[in-house]
# Entry
Amino acid sequence: AHLDRIEAVDTDLHAFLHIDSDGALKRASEIDQLRADGHEVGPLAGVPVAVKDVLCTIGMPSTAGSKILEGWMPPYDATVVARMRSANLVLLGKTNMDEFAMGSSTEYSAYGPTRNPWDRERTPGGSGGGSAAAVGAFEAPFALGSDTGGSIRQPAAFTGTVGVKPTYGGVSRYGAIALASSLDQVGPVSRTVLDAALLHDVIGGHDPHDATSLTDFWPSFAAAAREGAEAPSLKGVRIGVIKELGGDGFQKGVNDRFTEALALAEAAGAEIVEVSAPHFEYGIAAYYLILPAEASSNLAKFDSVRFGLRVTPEGGGTVEQVMSATREAGFGPEVKRRVILGTYALSAGYYDAYYGSAQKVRTLIQRDFAAAFDRVDVLVSPSAPTTAFTFGEKTDDPLSMYLNDITTIPANLAGIPGMSLPMGLAAEDGLPTGLQIMAPAREDVRLYRIGAAFE
Ligand code: GLN
# Structure
């Protein structure tokens, strides 16, 4: 049914970069057979899933939305992919994304943009617009995304879906093509909080292949989501509203829905507390130094020797000329912008002023969160300042694109978990809005319990 749906709508939506119909049908019948033979197949056996193209998959190309990796077939599965296969999920294919996950609209994909299923003249957000659109358009019941500065949560908000960025280290990054290693987290996109929890239970937990993977014991997120949904009370829950992430500068329909959500929470017994996070205003500035710095280093491996594309100048050329011609042809403008920015920020003489200062701001933001979580159980804000914007609206002005990340970036800088869930449609444009809930690090379970109660 999902392959039929993809066939019917994806020529127009372009949520997928690669569709593995044959592989999916074959795997589905194998799982049927396992079940018929009396094997224990697990709760998600046979359920299809879409995978963001940033994740390595055996047997399917993995391009991270870039020309430089066109047709690249990884020799191994990302840990999250391997875990989904072992849990007998069926991989439908790979979803579109901004090149190397740099962007907030999926317009920076080297393979053309994805359309928002709610309004095809609008973007689905980014960088994981493909995964969110696939779930929003019923092409897949759920999907995997990656979130470095909001790439799971903001597209979820733009498409009326649920997206979760787990605690940093809670889900393995092994086999996720790195953007900024200290910020990247893989997580689920789904239509309900429970679905996200079920998928998180499959992909999460310690992985010895990822040096930053936490060794914590994680409780069942699905159990927490069920608990929240069955007794949807917020009695005694202290909800902090971050003053700096709302109000002026946010779209009216978004603010209105957010105010309504808070009123509902209060009626369900929550205590609403206003909190201030004075350093959040520097979040975007710090992020857009730290991210390019790490990205410029991570992307150095695309050198025409080890992976993907190789362009040789006419008549041959030196190693340096081949590398330079390959990177010139293989990377898009946003990737080049960030590599240049990051290399500059890390260079001798500028390191302390830029990268060093950004790291200090990161610490101050972490302290803002710590102070806020002394007073409240969870923090909330709109997931994005606007609803889905139109194509071309922000591509000429990178800064205006970056500003859309104001609400999501702080959680990545602090390594804490964040969830976006549908908050209703904005009155002025009829488009989905998202409620962001954030919890202290390692308290992902709280997001699922409270998120399901909100839902
Ligand atoms: N929009 C953000 C950026 O462009 C977030 C990217 C992400 O989370 N991968 O960096």
